[in-house]
UniProtKB/TrEMBL annotation:
Record-annotated ABC transmembrane type-1 domain positions: 19-303
Residues spanning the membrane: 56-77, 135-156, 162-179, 248-268, 280-301
Source species: Paenactinomyces guangxiensis
Keyword annotations from UniProtKB, A to Z: ATP-binding, Cell membrane, Membrane, Nucleotide-binding, Transmembrane, Transmembrane helix, Transport
Identification of the protein by name: ATP-binding cassette domain-containing protein
Nucleotidyltransferase in keyword set: no
Any one Gene Ontology cellular component term annotated for this protein: plasma membrane
Topology versus the membrane: Multi-pass membrane protein
Cited Pfam families: ABC_membrane, ABC_tran
Keyword Repressor: no
Lineage, opening ranks: Bacteria, Bacillati, Bacillota, Bacilli, Bacillales
InterPro entries recorded: AAA+_ATPase, ABC1_TM_dom, ABC1_TM_sf, ABC_transporter-like_ATP-bd, ABC_transporter-like_CS, P-loop_NTPase, Type_1_exporter
Length: 594
């Protein structure tokens, strides 16, 4: 029951709804006491042969009135309790979603999407149930159960009440035992569901690869096995669940038997009227629901407890990257400087970057090249503070990025990642993602800069064409250019293109870079690329090799050094000549050596 203690903050927040809801339940419990009284009076008058038509009309009308009042109360408590519990669902989901938005990519990297989704759906649903059905069953078993037992004992016959209640401790024992079993089995079922969720998510997003590798049958088989496991584990839950009701029915049956057996003796001996015995058995009937509620309560509370702990654990994970208390609220414009001795990823032993010393003047373009895994993305991510390097290792305008407010830093930087994401929205909305109030003219202007305007005009509904998961299929190059337009719309002080031109052809790449040069005077641009032509015109180029700067200089200077850059540049030039000459290489973006 400790879950109710943990949810106390919410009960306080919604105290009006809960107080009113519980008072209404109390009202219904009192109203329900009345009908058996009416039955007793009528039965006793019938036995004594004194029942008149007026009596019958009077007591029946009162019973009807009680029914109507109970109907109104029944409506009210549902609105109060379930309304409040649904608001808890909204509150927790919002909290969880906000929490997710604060988490670093590392957090999502470590956790499976299906798991996170299961927390936001199943777990929160179980907590909502505790705050709604849980409170209902607790209140009903205590209030209704208590009032009925009190009435039976004090107004009818306390001895008969004790006898009728003899089987009850067995019920308490059984329900707590079942509750325990249920908890363990439910946990396993939740886990299995979470794994299946994850599989669905992975398979849907990776459906192209599955088909390309002809793995449909294998995946189907694997999915079936997972589903079988979920079903088996849920059946195990259902088996225990199924024990609850029959146990209660058995216990209630024994109670009825004892009542009728002992009560009849009382009637024969004259200590109890037939009307009173009838009234008593009706009350015993009224006890079935509180008893069921009591058993059900364990079930709900067990589920709620496990789910609450899981959600709480997730909410207590601190974001990897946080604002320092004295973080400044703006990003000064100025030079970008890296003075980095070493950077090691949190879960790695070897440094991803070492001895990086770079100075990019404001308005310059820096090219970052190197083989796959040489540290290009890491170099750019550190500027964005997706991970934190040593304090003061990286600064903008003389201020370490670790001293800036994260939101402000990210607002100042336009980032086009390798894995561009388009949302299920129109092209215009996708471009205006970072600036939803952008005008159509502004959107078209950046689309022109990113050389995607003409393509968009050819789409069925132009800028209103829906793209993303539920929209038209775009080529990799089109997606890249829309992502570039999205970043350009913010007209950021610093623009990062992380291998963002890999899927566009050389001519388009040239046109985009030219447009950037013209439009981004006095603004800094960092470009990482596999194809060296993308950085050819950069003011400064660094070549990374196993996390260290192996070569540096302008294109001309690097071509004079007989290093990796020169070799790769010549090789790529040769490849593009072969392709232009109608070679069969296809569109090659990365050299086999890289
Ligand atoms: P590039 O962009 O040049 O391909 P990366 O910067 O992505 O290279 O990777 C540099 C090195 O850091 C690689 O050895 C890679 O395995 C490692 N690395 C990248 N991301 C992580 C991470 N999140 N955790 C641990 N190691 C990582």
């Amino acid at each position: 029951m400790s879950i109710f203690k943990d949810l106390w903050w919410f009960f306080k927040l919604e105290r009006k709804s809960y107080i009113l809801g519980i008072l209404t339940l109390l009202g219904i419990a009192l109203l329900h006491l009345f009908t058996p009284v009416a039955v007793r009076v009528i039965v006793d008058k019938m036995v004594a042969d004194t029942l008149t038509l007026n009596d019958l009309i009077f007591w029946s009308s009162l019973s009807l009135l009680v029914g109507v009042m109970a109907y109104g109360c029944g409506f009210l408590w549902r609105i109060m309790l379930f309304g409040a519990s649904n608001r808890l669902g909204r509150l927790l989901r919002n909290r969880l979603y906000n929490h997710f938005t604060k988490m670093s990519p590392q957090f999502f990297h470590k956790r499976r999407t299906g798991d996170l989704m299961a927390h936001a759906t199943n777990d929160i649903q179980a907590i909502v149930m505790t705050a709604g059905d849980g409170v209902l069953t607790l209140a009903d078993s205590i209030i209704t159960g208590g009032i009925v037992v009190f009435t039976m004992a004090f107004f009818i016959d306390w001895k008969l009440t004790i006898i009728a209640l003899i089987p009850m401790p067995f019920m308490a024992w059984a329900t707590s035992k079942y509750g325990n079993m249920l908890h363990k089995r439910f946990h396993k079922a939740q886990e299995a569901f979470s794994i299946t969720n994850d599989k669905v998510q992975e398979n849907i997003s990776g459906v192209r690869v599955i088909k390309a590798f002809g793995q449909e049958e294998h995946e189907k088989k694997e999915f079936k096995e997972l589903l079988d496991d979920v079903v088996d584990k849920n059946i195990a839950v259902a088996r225990v669940d199924a024990l609850f009701d029959p146990t209660i029915i058995l216990v209630v049956g024994i109670s009825f038997f004892l009542t009728v057996a002992y009560g009849s003796v009382g009637v024969v001996e004259g200590t109890l009227s037939i009307g009173e015995l009838t009234q008593f058995t009706i009350y015993l009937g009224h006890l079935i629901w509180p008893m069921l509620a009591f058993g059900w309560l364990f079930n709900i509370v067990e589920r709620g407890r496990a789910s609450y702990d899981r959600v709480d654990k997730l909410l207590n994970i601190q974001p990897d990257i946080e604002d320092q208390p004295d973080a400044i609220d703006r990003v000064p414009s100025g030079d970008i400087k890296y003075q980095l001795k070493s950077f090691i990823y949190p879960e790695s032993r070897t440094p991803a970057l070492q001895d990086i010393s770079v100075h990019v003047r404001r308005g310059e373009t820096l090219g970052v090249v190197g083989k796959t895994g040489s540290g290009k993305t890491t170099f750019l991510r550190l500027l964005l503070r997706e991970f934190d390097a040593a304090p003061s290792a990286i600064s903008i305008g003389g201020v370490p990025v670790t001293n800036m407010k994260l939101l402000k830093l990210r607002e100042a930087i336009g980032y086009v990642p390798q894995d561009h994401v388009l949302f299920s929205a129109t092209v215009a909305e996708n471009i205006a993602f970072g600036k939803p109030d952008a005008t159509r003219d502004e959107i078209e202007e950046v689309a022109r800069l990113a050389c995607i305007h003409e393509d968009i005009l050819h789409f069925d509904q132009g800028y209103e064409t829906v793209v993303g998961e539920r929209g038209v299929t775009l080529s990799g190059g089109q997606k890249q250019r829309i992502s570039i337009a999205r970043a350009l719309l913010l007209n950021p002080e610093i623009l990062i293109l992380d291998d963002s031109l890999s899927a566009v052809d050389a001519k388009t790449e040239h046109a985009i870079l030219e447009a950037l040069r013209k439009n981004r005077t006095n603004k800094t641009t960092l470009i990482s690329a596999h194809r060296l032509s993308a950085v050819e015109k950069a003011d400064h180029i660094i070549v990374l090799e196993e996390g260290r700067i192996a070569e540096r200089g302008t294109h001309e200077e690097l071509m004079k050094q007989n290093g990796w850059y020169k070799e790769m540049y010549e090789q790529q030039q040769l490849e593009s000549l072969v392709m232009e000459g109608g070679g069969t290489f296809g569109h090659q973006t990365a050299s086999p050596l890289s």
